[in-house]
Write a structure and sequence with these properties.
single chain; 409 residues; Molybdenum Cofactor Biosythetic Enzyme, Chain A; Alpha-Beta Plaits; Maf protein; 6-stranded mixed β-sheet; 5-stranded mixed β-sheet; 15 helices; 17 strands
Length: 409
């Protein structure tokens, strides 16, 4: 089934609003055994006409987001009716729903809102319990341009997502006739790149009949996607894990931080974090996971040398002789965090994010990661990540969390 997404909204093209619909639709449609064939974003108004005309002549399903509100630039309904050759009429049930929405909130409904109850003749009104703009479904039989179903959905995610699940998914299942979606498995790896897969196992994956595979690379991480039947996916997984077992983070969709917390909790261990160059990013990633409080006890952001001394007990002599970005200081930061917190594991990072502050001996992008554990000799690892500040911080946080994962997993 050929599915196209048409996102409308000038704010999406100006960059004022982040368009997250594309990734979301891709994930949700894949669960149904469907995929997005094309996605287009256009500004409000007449630009919708050309894109919609092209899409309905090419696709089996077109999903349009945005432009269903009461303002003058909300023209999605009008343009859709025009493109499909349908009359636009006032839907009485839709109007009553709008009036009830405002009455329940003790607000008067201004006349401009009536346009939200307009709908192409014969189309289904899709209820919107989370906003004023109802959606619209135009079945293929009504489309004078071709055998294409058209869904008009509101733009805000809080309105679009519930409407999609309640109203669009059942209709897509009926249209597609897919009862059992294909199986898929996503394996997360860290510490390797796409080129490692290409050199190591790419040819072998390609030789597996019935297996579709692909990669998604991020900073410090590569996801391997396997699609096929259960037996074929199992063979692909065995090949990938056999080649890169040490770098495997998860095969159940869990993030690196989720795996770290899960492994520590399974041992009954607590974790403390001491950060300099990452400025709290490691703790932020960990606390984004529900239940992190069962493991994470302390987070020290010791950006200044004075803070390293006062909060973690780092030696002033070590700072003077070796500098803040050094193996010695990384070790002392980790040991100090372990001692002060009473945790069983502590990780510390110190580095040069740039763009200034580097030297020939310690260029921008240099970082040291210290790891201290009860009853084990403290270790320190040097990494070099010459990136912009934001990406450097992410890369260092990834390396630090992975060091914990490999040490306690």
């Amino acid at each position: 089934m050929r599915i196209e997404i048409l996102n409308t909204g000038t704010e999406l093209l100006l960059g004022n609003t982040l368009n997250t619909h594309g990734a979301w639709f891709g994930r949700e449609l894949f669960k149904l055994g469907l995929r997005v064939g094309r996605q287009v974003t256009v500004p409000d108004g007449d630009a919708i006409r050309e894109s919609l005309s092209e899409a309905v002549g090419r696709a089996d399903v077109v999903i349009v987001t945005g432009g269903l509100g009461p303002t003058s630039d909300d023209l999605t309904r009008e343009i859709t009716a025009e493109v499909l050759g349908l009359e636009l009429i006032l839907d009485e049930a839709g109007l009553r729903s709008l009036e009830a929405f405002f009455a329940a909130r003790g607000r008067p409904m201004v006349e401009a809102n009536r346009k939200q109850a307009m709908s192409p003749v014969g189309a289904d009104i899709l209820p919107n319990p989370n906003g004023t703009a109802p959606g619209v479904y135009v079945p293929p039989r009504l489309n004078g341009r071709g055998n294409c179903a058209v869904f008009l959905l509101p733009g805000p995610p809080r309105e679009l997502y519930p409407m999609f699940h309640a109203e669009v998914v059942p209709r897509l299942r009926a249209l597609s006739g897919i009862d059992v979606p294909p199986l898929a498995l996503e394996l997360k790896f860290t510490g390797i790149g796409e080129s490692d897969f290409h050199d190591g196992i790419d040819d072998q994956l390609a030789a597996m009949a019935g297996l579709e595979y692909g990669y998604c690379a991020r900073i410090g991480e590569v996801d391997l996607r396997l699609i096929g039947d259960a037996e074929t996916i199992a063979r692909g997984r065995e090949l990938a894990v056999g080649a890169f077992s040490r770098q495997l983070v998860s095969d159940d969709g869990s993030s690196l931080e989720q795996v770290v917390l899960r492994n520590l909790e399974a041992r009954g261990w607590k974790l403390a974090v001491a950060e300099s160059c990452t400025g709290g990013l490691i703790c932020s990633r960990l606390t984004d996971v529900a239940g992190a409080s069962a493991v994470l006890t302390h987070g020290f952001v010791t950006y200044a040398n004075e803070a390293k001394v006062e909060m973690l007990g780092v030696s002033e002599k070590s700072l003077a002789e070796h500098g803040a970005v050094s193996e010695t200081v990384a070790r002392e930061m980790a040991e100090g965090a372990l001692r002060v917190s009473g945790a069983q594991v502590a990780v510390a990072v110190t580095g040069i994010a740039g763009p200034g502050g580097g030297s020939e001996e310690k260029p921008v992008g240099t970082a040291w990661i210290g790891l201290a554990m009860e009853g084990v000799e403290t270790i320190a690892v040097k990494i070099y990540q010459p990136r912009n500040r934001k990406d450097f911080k992410l890369a260092v946080s990834q390396a630090a969390l992975d060091l914990v994962r490999r040490s306690v997993g």
